[in-house]
Amino acid sequence: MADIRSHFVGIRSPNPFWLASAPPTDKEYNVVRAFQAGWGGVVWKTLGLDPHIVNVSGPRYGAVWGADRRLLGLNNIELITDRPLQVNLDEIKRVKRDWPDRAVVVSLMVPCEQSCWTDIMAKVEDTGADGVELNFGCPHGMSERGMGSAVGQVPEYIEMVTRWVKAASRMPVIVKLTPNITDIRHPARAARKGGADAVSLINTVSSITAVDLDSFSPEPSIDGKGSHGGYCGPAVKPIALNMVAEIARDAETRGLPISGIGGITTWRDAAEFMALGAGNVQVCTAAMTYGFKIVQEMIEGLTAWMDQGGHADLDAFVGRAVPNVTDWQYLNLNYVAKARIDQDACIKCGRCHIACEDTSHQAITSTVDGKRHFEVIEAECVGCNLCVNVCPVENCITMEPLAPGSLDRRTGRVVSPDYANWTMHPNNPSSVAAE
Amino acid sequence: MTEARLETGVAAGRLAPEEYERGFGDLHPPLDRHEALVAADRCYFCYDAPCVTACPTGIDIPMFIRQIATGNTLGAAKTIFDQNILGGMCARVCPTETLCEQACVREAAEGRPVEIGRLQRVATDAAMAAGRQFYRRAEPTGRRIAVVGAGPAGLACAHRLAVHGHEVTVLDARPKAGGLNEYGIAAYKTVDGFAQAEVEYVTAIGGITVEPGRALGRDVTLAGLCAGYDAVFLGLGLAGVNALGTPGDDADGVADAVDWIAELRQASDLATLPVGRRVVVIGGGMTAIDAAVQAKLLGAEEVTICYRRGREHMNASAWEQDLAASKGVAIRHWLRPRRVLAERGRVTGIELEYTRLADGRLDGTGETLTLAADQVFRAIGQSFVAAPLDGAIALEGGRIRVDAEGRTSMAKVWAGGDCVAGGDDLTVSAVAMGRDAAESIHRSLS
After folding, report:
1. Residues of A annotated as part of the active site
2. CATH code, domain carrying B315
3. Fewest beta carbons within 10 Å, which of A206, A414, B162, B230?
């Protein structure tokens, strides 16, 4: 059976599934329940300086739902822990003592003064915790006070604080990044320069989930007013995957360990993050939606998939997809695919036709010989994949690559066996002829 | 257990009061808000949707379902009423399993269509509960039109004519408007006086005067209507009932299913309505099912439908047959009545003969079966009674011949619903014909 034990920046855990720093890891009670359920580790909800902050006593979450009220996205305006620092430290110490095989990492957020960071690092080290995560990510509330994403949005601050923290302790330091920036590579590079052992991402995305059309208040509404929150859950996964991949393949950050976060709900999501370079993953929304038991499906599902694929341990597949992430300009422009509709599987809803007809390339019929019939017109099909994505039947429409040597009826050209990308294309004013 | 439960003969009050309530309650309770959202979410919003093609009134089904899904329930109701002003009743009585829901692509995909009928009810019920009228009458045209028959065809015709600003008088032979909606449909499909509520909703637009108790051929003549109105629409329905044509057909306890159902629909207390202990229904259509199921629900111990052909030949849909079976009705095939047995003029049983198909022709095998019965219902079809037309209008196959717009052979006279030739005897088709005839009348008067 595949070995899913995780060894991330020197921190060991029985599996790569950690709970992210968030409400599920706010207290000993929750964390113990999580460990009982099987979670490999936790990042304790962010500690700050005393006097502890206060939270609103009203709605802290907003949501976006899919069919049957399936939670697709969650946004929150909750701040860091609202309990005294010593209470948290005592609980962390106890939990680590009682659960020595699990990862206990402590998330931190204190003002941008070296003494604040040095002081708190000493206190955390005393708990016996496995490492710290610097919260440079939260986009709401704390950022107004010069912390959280206010730090994460300025690479120089990231580097500076990371260096202070590394100087203050020998504990592994993970820097948690905010996605609320234009290019994730810059904060990641700064973290590395500051000496970070790893980065974790993404923190939440600045968001307003909805507007109440009667009161005209944003949601969640506190006494008729709303403030942007941090968006998370399945909806942010694609954003997170891209940012993880960007860091994994950037020349300046390649090899920097990554803890993947962002909408991970199933073992499959976790495996995708890890294939794109994450050494482990952190989960929050899925646990907040379904409870801690979901980790059992994650453990079993990942193990079964690894067994099936012959991946003996996590290192066998971590980063395996990274070499396949490239820039658009290097995509093979000689590759030609055409949509094909499996007529036996087709239920004749016509969505492929109307999507193609109204919004794309007029490449799918609606009637043939007077009968309702949906078929790809190869001479028009550009292979865009929209029909595949709107078809409600899985595998009914597939993209079939044209074999080299065959005729592309749209362009009238024979498909070339050679690789040719934009950098060599004649239409590119700055193209370089292939040697 | 009430004492009357096993009483032989035809008796009232066989059941406890709560059993009547349970049996004759809403067959499909309405979907609640969340159920409706889940059901609506299953719609794929198909291109040129097959469900719309399958609907005789052509309701834009994907659009109204999308409106429900977005919380615009009243907008959904308007989408429905635009095509079918009796969308509320159709949501209850349409055999959706052979119309829109059969055509639904999810029926093809997974054998479970979008619940179009129940979703339609969500929208139409909401609009009717809110008393929301979506149409305002056009400026009065001064034209007067007589509609004969206040059933689905007549009401749909009257409403559309009123929308166009015409003055409409609706005559009906019965004491109440509604036609089969009021007198014919099984009680558990239209509870809480829905048929009358719908008549009120439809006529609330104004410009429609309903005159019940006035029959063509008895109280008015076709010639008189033609003289007094600018146009006439005939939505006469089928007033005649086919006879068994077997000895003993006139015995006490033998009745037409349609009459008995009408009596049941009008009963203020179902416990006062007598029903046999052993009931035999002859026929294979919807009327047979409705009579049989309601007899069972009234407390008959044994109810048997006897049909002269096979299951696949029955006019009642498979869904209706299953409903009957689930209520404890036995359906027996390949049996035709030969003789009604009676003692002292009262039915005691029925002798049936087994049948078979030989070279496509139905034949008796000679073998017989006798079923004990103290009530026998004829449900072997209804027929158009042409006498009130005084021979002035051409018929086809015994019903009124009309063109694609509903025009009869007589100038100024249109017809629609069950009384015209070539129809499928469905409420929804009657609505479509009434609506389309109204448009034709309007064009001819403009």
Report:
1. 138
2. 3.50.50.60
3. A414
